[in-house]
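Project standup — Tuesday

K.O.: blocked on the structure for the chain from last sprint. Re-posting the sequence here as requested.
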Amino acid sequence: MRQTRRALTILLAACTIALSAPLAEAQPRRDTGIDLTTVRPPSPAKQDDPPTIRSYFLLALLVAAAVGANCIPSKRGHQD
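H.V.: unblocked you, prediction finished:
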């Protein structure tokens, strides 16, 4: 059993090394044609307003669900 496990471990390590060697040699492309010294992040065109009414409605719904769940009596007997 140990010999089989050891052989499988060695085989797995050899396959991993053999398959990852071409990936280690791959060089990233450096000729992109973009001057990285002048690149700036894009600015948003329009600031969105958050939906105020919908947010308050969702908050009220969640609070009502939490209060309603706490109002349900537990079904425990006198022996608990």
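K.O.: great, moving the ticket to review. The radius of gyration is 31 Å. The longest helix spans residues 2-25.
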